[in-house]
Amino acid sequence: MQPKIKYGLFILAFLLIGFFTYVTVFSEDKDEEKKGTNYAQAQVRRGDIKVSASASGNIEASTKKNIKALENGIVDSIFVREGEFVEEGDLLMTFESDTETVEIERAKLDLRLEEDNLKELKSDLDNLKIYANTSGYIGDISAEVGDELSKGYVLSTITDNSKVEISGFLNKGQIGNIKIGDKAEVAVSEYMQVFEGKVTDIKQNPITDSTGAILYKITVEVDNPGALTEEIKGIVTVKNSKGRFSSVNESNFTIKTIDEIILKTDGELKELYIDSGDYVEKGDLLAVLENKSLQNEIDNTKILIEQKQLELTEKLKNADDLAVYAPISGTVTEISVTEGERVGENSTVAVISDLSNLQIVIPIDELDINKVEVGQKAIVTVDAVPDVVFNAEVSKIALEGEVSNGVATFDVTLSLKEMDGLKPGMSANGEISIESKKNVLLLPIEAIQQRQGRKIVLVKNDSGEPQAVQIKLGLVSEDFVEITEGLKEGDIVLYPVTSSSTQRNFPRGMGMIGIGGGGRPQRS
What we know:
Blueprint: H1 3-34, E1 39-43, E2 45-61, E3 64-68, E4 73-78, E5 85-86, E6 91-96, H2 102-126, E7 129-131, E8 136-138, E9 148-149, E10 154-170, H3 172-175, E11 183-188, E12 193-202, E13 207-208, E14 214-223, E15 233-240, E16 243-246, E17 251-262, E18 267-272, E19 279-280, E20 285-290, H4 292-318, E21 322-325, E22 330-335, E23 342-343, E24 348-353, E25 358-365, H5 366-369, E26 377-382, E27 385-397, E28 402-404, E29 407-416, E30 427-444, E31 449-451, E32 454-460, E33 466-470, E34 472-476, E35 480-485, E36 492-496, E37 512-514
Antiparallel strand pairs: 1-36, 1-37, 2-25, 2-30, 3-24, 4-6, 4-23, 5-22, 6-21, 7-20, 8-10, 8-19, 9-18, 10-14, 10-17, 11-12, 11-15, 12-14, 13-14, 15-16, 15-17, 18-20, 22-24, 25-29, 26-27, 26-30, 27-29, 28-29, 30-35, 31-32, 32-33, 32-36, 34-35
């Protein structure tokens, strides 16, 4: 056969195949229409699409170590508590097979004494700065800058004379009608003025005055306008619904609060920020001491503590004791033994977790796992912390999946970037953002049909009839697809629906026309 004839037959065959394919597809659409199929309409519109993979899991510490007993023995001493933070290498607990020796007990005591000494030295370092314990006026200052002062030295006083107190003395008949909180007034003859106050204390034990009268003491607090001093006298009168009850004699006012500024450590007075008569607020810095030898003592004590720890460790080894140390820095989240309890080899005695780094491990379907990469952004929502979205990142992907009912899932670890309010064990949901596009042509996934390996939609033509159009897809999310070829913005797409279908919520810029969305076709 001549080449031209062969080429002509090939073209003819290709055209016939295309014609019969079109007739078949279009006739199927016509058959569905003739059967009375209900159609929904969706307009091709622009919007955003996001492809993600999500699953549930539990919040957990990124690093968690089960501490095990190395041998059979009895728990001797536990040096930590649940909830305590420990550094890598810290001694957690010791075990013994026999009674500890006196040397070990002495080494433990020496270590504890040096640790207590270090705490005191650090406290002395903090106490080189002297702050006001209360608000008020500075009294006479008994030292100058450059003076060497000792612990317990009284540098000055702070007097709060905003309130003063005065005593009243009543007889037995009067005292029974008075209660704490009753209003009172104090008449001061020197100023020919009455000051308002209230009863703050009532003594139930009677006293006898110089005339032999039995009296009961009450205390009245008065706001001090500034003129009331301890040299001024007044007469107290209590007034309530039962009457007015006056003291039998005058009493002197007393300043309610006088606070001594007592040094808590030794040192040279390096800075002095106050003068006599100054008014200071609680917490104000008053003075600074300097003690050059204090830091050296702290450093030497730290070295001594390290030596004591080494000595204790050596003695424990020599006595055939078993010591357990923290393998990581973290929080002791569980102690499963008590002192004196016998434990077996390799039994878990404690758990240390790094609570500063939390994560969630979620199982991702085998169909999605190849789209997940380390470093991808993710979000985590937690049932116990509603209305809060936590940022996370893919930090690890399992190399081997777990198969259940013929479907494989792969564990993906999401490291949390935010952890406020989160605790290990909380149930959570992780969503990994795989890919997204903005301002692309979108259709509901229900509108896409597959015919003979091709992606097809039914486009409403000018006469209102459905016309099969082949399209190409881009991103495919759970609900929507990106249209890359075959359609333009504004095209109306028809697709069959069932009576039980419900309308789908569209992403930004999307909407459906007509009745509710239908069932989803099979994906290729």
